[in-house]
Amino acid sequence: MPGMQQHSEPFFEAASAVSVGKRTYQEDAVLFDCPLGSDTGLVVLSDGMGGHAAGDVASKIVLTEVFSELKLQSGASEAQETGYHGVLTRAARGANDCIRAYIEDRPESLGMGATLVAGVLQGDALHWISIGDSPLYLFRGGVLQRLNEEHSFGHTMDSMVASGLMESEDAAQHPDRNCLTSVVGGGGIAEIDCPEEPFRLLNGDLLVFASDGIEYLSNERIRTVLADWSTMSSGQIAAQLLREIEKLDDPDQDNVSIVVVKIQLVETPAIRGNRPHVAPRPVVPARPTSIFALKTVDTGKARAHKGRRQLKCDTP
Question: Considering the entire predicted model, what is its pTM?
Fold first, then answer.
């Protein structure tokens, strides 16, 4: 009706696809919750390191702790009043403390760890956090953009090349290029990428949360797939990305996990007289204190062909 206020009713269509690649076991863990009729969606993805019975456990710990904390706090007063920055960082640190406790109880698992990329979608706002090298992509208007930073020596080396402090060939062939500079592994988390302000979404945006196994595809190939399949469902898009990776038949292909989220913001008339939302009080579980650990990743592969990743953990 003329003069009636409009507001955006969000709809998040999400789907996932996973592959073990050429590895013998799966170390990725992924979970999402984007129910129809809700204005809030959750996505959590973790890529474990440390070998079988360590890396897969680490990613499951991170997934379970972060997802449960976000689900518990979604709609809580803290998130409503101050945003999700505190909720996300507390969830990550809580997962880190749980890994520390696991390692203390099972010393043979020393060196385990995992990356984290997670998002809370609320209306047209995306609140996100990342630790490690698992990418978060935005596809908008035919352009592919990575929203989060890559916490690896390779990223640092690329910056040095751009500043003229390092030769591009040396950076590309450096044996430590894929060493992670930050990880969820029970020690100190060196870098946490979590903006204070949410990223504003537009109708038609595509979000891709992934483990770094997707990077065997070039950015241009990922962009082309998203452009060609943008009118399809999120499940079809995720499946096509996986097919493109499988067509490479790379003998070093890492585990791959992908979550595709299609953003639909539909303008609907605002209804007067809605009941006020009474947010529950936040529940903040007690967590053990953190200890410091240095994490490195041992691989001689270039960025496009990663080797198996292992963590070395030294506790002072």
Answer: 0.82
